[in-house]
């Protein structure tokens, strides 16, 4: 078994690099596009980081049209990487930017990473509240291999208003822009003279785009085509027809709205959305690539990225098991019989269902009030704050229920520290504390190895481990310093979850045989990710069939629907894979050690790392 774990660890590690290598080749169109990480300052010395995609054959003597790609609020440039990939394949130079406070760009006070704003004027030395879009257009214009009069801009969500402001500032150079899924762009459109848009404008209005519904207060995104300010902008007194070109690309005043069958973040992985965007720019700024808009490779990159994530999870599990087979960390393994609470199966499943139900019931009812708490130096990232605090609150609720259960039932039926997963081979209090320190060392070793791999892959291949908006991103020195607050919240959460999982949810029992092993992993997943997965499925099923978001709940100053209720629902796309990853890891370590410490600390540390690497600063 020891050798088997070592072999599987090695094979998993090799597969991680193989899959990332293949994914990176699709990202670079098999070497026909050069991808560079670049850094450049604004007027105040704040540094923006971007990835530049340069197609083969582009040079000062053969300049190419260029497109600036801006992501949505709170995201990072990899979230919109599929668009960069496809545009670069067609001969466009693409500058994809980490906005202020996102990814590897500097954070600038003023909430520029998470709030839309005007860009100011060219001569101003104040930091412009446009996420860095205007600075990035200026950067594009500094390259001699960029066609100075063929600049395009695309921006998702809040990035849509950022690019519009920057385009208005550099209108003499801009040929076309396409905001997509951008309610903030629509707000800008209402208060801006249409004549100032001296370039072609396309817009993606997804049929199920919930943020368009929030921004416009419409019941259906199709109603956008009937709004007076849209008709005025398009120069017509009739309802705008989706897909029809108003004005002309030749005169740089084309206006087009496209209505892909997708949601707000669905645009990021929607072939139809990608196809509309490619067709728009091929008309506005043609490169004559000869590639059909339906000829898309980003799906293959995403597929191999997913395989790399799975391989990374396997590596984490088998590395942990290999360490626990060794002499030093082997003392964390309890070889003796595992005591458990004497419970009937119906009661165990009631425990599982209760643990699934609590996060479902609190996501909006407690989550929305938590959004009124402001970010701070200890908790500087809004979404990470809300979710970490909510996990801690849920842990408190579960702990109260557990204490009641313990005195009413558990204590009378074998409930003890040992049966609750706290047993160690420490030999007394002092020895037990030493074992806890060992568990901490084990967890740090595992997560350190994970981020050595993640950072190495990013350095080699210019891509992170991701699917859609879920990602395990490389860590920087600047970001790791913010881990403490989030680590405390997740330690509280997983400490309680692990304890109740092995007690009144019955994770500690029935662990033998294939069916027993499956049940343990299934119970671990249901407790960790099951409730969130149900919310996600209900939300996206309702959105697809009704084109209106479920759980669009009013709170505080938003009685008709709080935007964060939509954000919480969309973020389940990241939460479910995160908790799937850590629940499998957690269960594997529990099965090996028969104690809750190892998986508890490792899961909390990994989620804290994901929290500080994948979200934007908002303090």
Topology, please?
Layout: H1 2-27, E1 33-41, E2 47-55, E3 64-70, H2 81-89, E4 93-98, H3 133-140, E5 146-156, H4 158-169, E6 174-180, H5 183-190, E7 200-204, H6 210-216, H7 228-234, E8 255-258, H8 271-284, H9 298-325, H10 345-365, H11 367-370, H12 382-408, H13 418-422, H14 429-461, E9 465-467, E10 470-472, H15 477-480, H16 483-502, H17 513-546, H18 563-593, H19 597-613
Parallel strand pairs: 3-4, 3-5, 5-6, 6-7, 7-8
Antiparallel strand pairs: 1-2, 2-4, 9-10
Helix pairs in contact: 1-9, 3-4, 4-5, 5-6, 9-14, 9-18, 10-12, 10-17, 12-16, 14-19, 16-19, 17-18, 18-19
Q: Could you write a compact summary of the structure shown?
A:
The protein folds into two domains: 30-296, Alpha/Beta hydrolase fold, catalytic domain (Rossmann fold, 3-Layer(aba) Sandwich); 301-331 and 343-613, no CATH class. 51% of the residues lie in helices and 10% in strands.
